[in-house]
Amino acid sequence: MYNIKVSLIVAVYNIEKYIVRCINSLMYQTYKNLEIIIIDDGSTDSSGKICKDYKKKDSRIIYVFQKNSGLSSARNTGIQLSTGEYISFVDGDDWLEKNAVEKMVSRIDKDVDIIITSFFRDFPKKIVSNESEFQGRVSREKCIEMMVKGNGITHSACAKLYKKELFNEVIFPIDKYYEDYYTIYYIIDRAKEIFVDGCATYHYVYRDGSIVSKPTVSKMTDLFEASKEIYQYIIEKYPYIKESAMELHLYDNLLIYVNLEDTKNQLSLLVSEELKQFSLIEILNSSIRNRVKYKYMLFRLNSKLFIWIMKKYFNRKERKNIIGEL
Questions:
Q1: pLDDT score of 235 more than 60
Q2: Which residues face 65 on adjacent strands?
Q3: β-strands 34-40, 127-129: how paired?
Q4: What are 74-126's pLDDT values in tens digits?
């Protein structure tokens, strides 16, 4: 297994302050059979020069500059260029533990098409580990259930190693935020088996100016559409986890509603309509966790009061701009 070639696909856009740490973490991996494919998505700062300088230092680095087309386009280009049997995605402002690839490759076995690890959250003043003790092979059905329930598996495309052929008929959607959300369920659903390793190998860096650092109507629109699409997909294909899928879908839409400034705009009305399709009795009698039930009940009772309380809570916890937290 240690002869397997791995392609690391790195999307770069105006991250001159972070790209050196990222590339160093890839070049000095303990696992050496790598190609490092850097897709520069039209950077206007010195990111491109830094990457080209590194290309001269390491023959495993492939550098490609393209017109700014977004993260999905950059990743899709990287997939097309890759020659490894397995691929992994690294955002250019993030970085890997030095043995990250070796740990993932060591889990490759017959019928294992995806290896999933955990991650660190690098905040400006502290690093928080999301490690868990779980280790083992799971079916794609079980993996999707774990992801829907938030049991140690996130929607991120990063911190995972994939057999490249899984992407033969699936691409990241162009011109969409939350591209991982749109994609990851379909990729996992194509795998034979998945190995889940709770050890943290990937550092997700929280920074100002990142793609999801602040909510906008366009970002919230894409989240709304992705959540709705995946909810329908799950309840049709995996009806036995309908309530877990419902909880995730409610959570997403409550998050969107809180982050929208104007509750009378078109998206707010669509979100409200989507939330109100579920009856209070249905939610109360479900296995949905209380923290989501109570928020939903408050929304149905008084949507303006719901927003006021949630925003006050965000301010107190200093988390109002962290997408994904309610």
A1: yes
A2: 40
A3: unpaired
A4: 999 999 999 999 999 999 999 999 999 999 999 999 999 999 999 999 998 89
Per the DSSP assignment, residues forming a β-bridge with 135 are: 197
Contact 120, 154 (CB under 8 A): no
Is residue 139 helix, strand or coil?
strand
Name the nearest CA neighbour of 161 among 99, 108, 110, 97: 108
Phi-psi region of 318 (alpha: psi -120 to 50; beta: other; left: phi over 0): left
**Exposure class string for 106-118: b at 16+ Cβ within 10 A, else e:** ebbeeebbbbbbb
Amino acid 234 reads: I
Residues 6 or more apart whose Cβ sits within 8 Å of residue 210: 93
In the chain, at which residue ranges do the beta strands (DSSP E only) sit?
A: 6-12, 34-40, 61-65, 86-91, 95-96, 112-122, 127-129, 135-139, 160-163, 193-205
Integer angstrom CA distances of residue 287 from 153, 246, 290, 309: 20, 10, 9, 24
Enumerate long-range contacts of 274-280, CB under 8 Å, 24 or more apart.
Answer: 274/224, 274/228, 275/250, 275/299, 275/300, 276/300, 278/246, 278/250
pLDDT above 90 covers what percent of the chain?
A: 83
Q: Which two tokens stand for residue 299?
A: 């929304």
Strand partners, 202: 96, 119
CB–CB of 170/183 below 8 Å? yes
8 Å CB contact between 145 and 182:
no
Q: Are 143 and 113 in contact (CB under 8 A)?
A: no
| Cβ count near 125 (within 10 Å) | 5
C-alpha span between 117 and 133 (Å, rounded): 11
Structure tokens at 310: 């949630």
Tens digits of per-residue pLDDT, 253-302?
999 999 887 777 899 999 999 999 999 999 999 999 998 999 999 999 99
